[in-house]
Amino acid sequence: MSSLTLEDRLELADLPVRYARCADGPDLDGLARCLSPDAEYDASGIPGGAVHEGRDAFVAFVAAAHARVDAPQHFVTNVSIEEHDTYVTCHCYVFAPLLAENGGTFVGVRWEDHVVRTSEGWRIRRRRVHPVWRLAAR
């Protein structure tokens, strides 16, 4: 039986959506509030990607990536929640048109988040990005 309450599940399902809204805003302070201090962004599955350790490095990476596009948008769907002993895994699909004046790309990825409960609420400790597809904009 799950120890997660309905309130927990609602907050967990909202977390990747809130993250996307803040990242796209950009609302970097709001983005940082979605993350634990020891957060890690694992983009090693993306060509040229790397692992960014710590909340500040995580936020800086997202800010730099989004600075290269005119209006980033992340559409988050199919959120599922799995409870573990010390964390929760949230899986979701993300469709992101990342367009710039010179073109850009449309991408489909899956986010795998390890989320922990802190005194401030649920926070992403680790995000791993799994690329699914990519299409160049014309």
Which features characterize this protein?
Nuclear Transport Factor 2, Chain: A, 138 residues, alpha+beta, globular, six-stranded mixed β-sheet
- What's the oligomerization state? single chain
User: Going across the major beta sheet, what is the strand order?
Assistant: 2-1-6-5-4-3
The count of strands amounts to 6
Mean pLDDT across the residues is 94
SS-based class: alpha+beta
User: What profile does the largest beta sheet have?
Assistant: 6 strands, mixed
Radius of gyration: 15 Å
General form: globular
Structure description:
It is a single chain. The protein is an alpha+beta fold and 138 residues long. The protein has a single domain (6-136), classed as Nuclear Transport Factor 2, Chain: A (Roll), CATH 3.10.450. Helix content is 27%, strand content 47%. The chain is built from 3 helices and 6 strands. The protein has helices at residues 6-24, 28-32, 55-67, and strands at residues 35-42, 51-53, 75-83, 88-100, 103-118, 121-136. The protein has a 6-stranded mixed β-sheet with strand order 2-1-6-5-4-3. The longest helix is centred in the N-terminal third of the chain and has 19 residues, at 6-24. It is globular.
